[in-house]
Design brief:
N-terminal domain of MutM-like DNA repair proteins; Helicase, Ruva Protein, domain 3; four-stranded antiparallel β-sheet; 10 strands; about 30% helix; about 25% strand
């Protein structure tokens, strides 16, 4: 499932290819990803409208319309935004498309149909109903430290908990733990204040770096764990080996002996 950097990249695509363009026509090819509107209602609500901005919270992207309603885009595992003009360039698994008055088109592609699209009349109420925590790139250090205060669970479980902190998923959680040299099963109540500040700093640096690279994995730094992790491979400086385990309910990679369990 896309994590914060991937959704931030979709946000840039949406802003470039949809915001400020009046919608001339809406075509729904498959309404199964529409959650609270029929295909007919979706077409009616969007035709003639204009997106005036976007908002992102964690893994959720919202397009704001000129009537101040929002369209929530959740990309599942294979959702994508595909801008084009020539019908021959339409994506193979296009579920719906928006035709704009300037002749451009934005298609929503999803081969596995795990995406979902939600019409939102009241964004604050919707966010409250989803119980999303603060965005992982927007949260302040003080708020992050308060979030960890008094907690006794595992480090990785906290990073993955979207109700506590929105945006970090499995791969980036492993990267944060690796760069902090902390075992992902480390207990929160065992972390020092220095550990907690380091985790915050690395979370900000890693996510920001990924966003700057448009979540293009091949452009990530060569020393990132993501680039070379392989079960049984020696760790940095020959210390430890890469191990795999289920932690916080997710498949987790870490370097035994390099990452300290506290």
């Amino acid at each position: 499932m896309p994590e914060l950097p991937e959704v931030a990249t979709y946000q840039k695509v949406f802003e470039r290819h949809a915001v400020g363009k009046p919608i001339r026509e809406v075509v729904v090819n498959d309404a199964k990803i529409l959650r609270n509107l029929t295909a007919e209602q979706f077409v009616e609500q969007l035709t003639g409208r204009t997106f005036i901005g976007t908002y992102r919270r964690g893994k959720f992207l919202f397009g704001e319309l000129d009537n101040h309603a929002y369209l929530q885009l959740h990309f599942g595992m294979t959702g994508d935004l595909v801008p084009y003009q020539d019908p021959a360039d339409a994506p193979r698994f296009e579920r719906f498309r928006l035709h704009f008055t300037d002749g451009s088109v934005l298609g929503f592609d999803d081969s596995r149909k795990f995406s979902h699209i939600v019409w939102v009349d009241d964004l604050p109420a919707y966010l409250l109903s989803r119980k999303l925590g603060p965005d992982a790139l927007e949260i302040s250090e003080d708020t992050f430290l308060q979030l960890l205060a008094g907690r006794k669970g595992q480090l990785k479980a906290l990073l993955l908990d979207q109700h506590a902190l929105a945006g970090v998923g499995n791969l980036y959680a492993d990267e944060i733990c690796f760069q902090a040299r902390l075992h992902p099963a480390s207990r929160l109540d065992g972390l020092s204040d220095e550990h907690k500040r380091l985790i915050f700093q690395l979370m900000q640096e890693i996510l920001s770096s990924a966003v700057e690279r448009l979540a293009y994995y091949r452009e990530y730094p060569e020393n990132w764990f993501w680039q070379w992790r392989q079960l049984g491979r020696p760790g940095p400086e020959g210390i430890g080996v890469v191990q795999r385990a289920t932690i916080a309910g997710r498949t987790t990679y870490f370097v035994e002996g390099w990452q300290v369990l506290v």
